[in-house]
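This part of the workshop introduces the protein records we will be handling. To make this concrete, we reproduce a full record directly below.
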Amino acid sequence: MRATTAHYFLAKQLEEAGLGFGDIEAINLTPSDGYTAFASGKLDAWAIYGYNGQLAIARQGARLLKTGVGYLSGNFPIYANPRAVDEPLRHAAVSDLLLRIQRAYAFANKNFPVYAEAQVAETHLPLQDILDQFARRSDDFSLAGVTPDVPETHQKVADTFLKLGVLDQRTEVGKFWDTSFNDAIVAGAASLARI
């Protein structure tokens, strides 16, 4: 899909091979439309993420050719309203939410079969698909603070999208990142390490 992580890592993988989008017939599809096209044999290859890739492997016998490891930072941002960041009580509430997410990730990493069963109850997806997707993950789930490399990696994505014509002008992404939750996240990680 255009302007997604799949678009970005496909661009970087093509570039690495000395190719560009002009060298392939790229089709912009939603994940569900992409799955339908892949399943019907209308796509030779599919740059996708998440459960749809698992579906292609489990149901269509797709072979995994390359992953986003080395191309994507693995950072999936959590967004907060600036008013919530600036107001002390709301900031504390957001900190509490982040620590709960951090604990949930730690639980899922250590107890994934239990976590997977809960996912099955909510999503009705096959348990084995969820377990297989977890087994192929590039790293454990984690919640970390914003380090200097985080905005740098996201700047690379924005710059690539500018080059591809997805963005009209250069955007400085560093201003969108907030480090005011870092201390709470570090303390939460230290507390989890003692368990």
In short: The CA atoms of residues 43 and 80 lie 38 Å apart. The chain has a mean pLDDT of 93. Residues 1-72 form one domain. The longest helix spans residues 88-110.
